[in-house]
Design a protein that fits this description.
Elements (H helix, E strand, L loop, with lengths): L8 E5 L9 E6 L6 E6 L6 E5 L3 E5 L6 E6 L3 E7 L5 E7 L6 E4 L4 E4 L8 E6 L5 E6 L3 E6 L4 E6 L7 E4 L5 E5 L3 E5 L4 E5 L10 E6 L5 E6 L11 E5 L4 E5 L8 E4 L6 E4 L2 E5 L5 E6 L4 E6 L5 E6 L3 E6 L4 E6 L1
Antiparallel strand pairs: 1-2, 3-4, 4-5, 5-6, 7-8, 8-9, 9-10, 11-12, 12-13, 13-14, 15-16, 16-17, 17-18, 19-20, 20-21, 21-22, 23-24, 24-25, 25-26, 27-28, 28-29, 29-30
Amino acid sequence: MRNILIVILIAIIGGCKQSSEEKFPQKEENHPSFFWSIGWHPNQDQFVVGGNQDTLRFFSTSNYKLLQNYPYKGTITKTKWHPSENKLAISVQDGVSESSILNLDNNESTILDSVSKEGARAIGWNHTGNLLAVGDYEGCISIFDENGNFQEKVYTNQKGMIALDWHPSQNLIAAVGDKITMYDYELDSLRTINDRTEEIEVLMLCVAWHPNGEFFATGDYGDFEYHYPPLLQYWSYDGQLIKSIKESKAEYRNIKWSNDGKLLATASEKIRLWNKQGDLVSAENSENLLWGIDWNEDGTKLVATDGEGKIIFWDSDLKRIQEFQY
């Protein structure tokens, strides 16, 4: 079986316009304490963790205490805070719960209709927070307004959307699956970029625009059966490959730029920091494969989750500050 390590990829029916014979590996085996996603609140002293424990958890960033639990059936694959309001967008797979927007001011949850029943793994707000995009396991991007009202569905002709990120100042989405999809919301235009020259499809797991909007980065799974290493890649605004980096021994689960754009943090078998030119700045070993990752607002701290349910904090020099199991 291809793409082994710690997960088993299960093939599901391909994209919204794909034939029934086409398959694409998407969903992954649940682990007893898998925290897929972690997100630092942009304006408050808290962070959120989601995974396969049927619970959304909120912690204090000052004392690491559990603040609140929200029941949420199924695997929470991604969470994204609204840029200015106390709202959280949540993508979900494998359960009775659905992707939604949770308003923390009144604890009201709005279901995001028109997202595939197969579930979703890619979600994100645009720079103003008036639009939300969800990429699902059928290869579609659904657009909603800030209150969760459906606006449109984009058929990407990919077999599944794994991650997406809006441009920091434009309504332009970079999304990844087995390829890169660029969708311009204002022009309603779509184009696809192949990220590799190999004949086989390599699953891409993460994408992040640089805060200056001039380029973006992607991280992929690699293919260990065919000896294709996981790649961290830098791409220009118009989708031209700038640099491919063969450094990690495991897949890139998540990547995140610091708000000042000086450092890119990547979650893999190590935590690594890169500069905007793609040079490795520093790295630290991890006992387990890292999954979720995020910076605080001023770029002085990093937080990540690993494959054994651990939450770990570092400073910007990758000195470990705190860790705990939950």
